[in-house]
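I hope you will forgive my troubling you with a question about protein structure. I should value your view on which stretches of the chain appear to form regular backbone elements. Here, with my thanks, is the record as I have it:
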Amino acid sequence: MAKLTIDDLKKIKEKVHKEMSLRDGDRRVKVTVHMGTCGIASGAKEVMDTLLEEIEAAKVHDVVVTTSGCMGLCSREPLVTVEVLNQEPIKYEYVNPNKIRQIFKRHVLSGEVQTPFVLAKGTEIIK
């Protein structure tokens, strides 16, 4: 296997940044499924699979899906964060396949936050 060069790493970084950015291109929503070992054990894989199926069925192209590790709230897993462009992020707790369908259809597609499932609103800022 060939060694990666600095230019290779820069290209990878630019590609990932472009894919992850909500402000660039036509991305309107970013959905993060938190998939640390605690999340996976609690069903995050099934949540991710269901979300991807819903996106495909709806034929939407302005939603990017990503994963992250544990948020440190293992007892609230599976956790999902929905970030709509120019709005505060919403963190959902105890998400299962039925809840992610509802979150996708009502929040992601229609803009209606699903309050009964919300753990937190906004971002954590350390000053």
About this structure: The mean pLDDT is 85. The two ends are 43 Å apart (CA to CA). The domain at 25-121 is CATH 3.40.30.10 (Glutaredoxin).
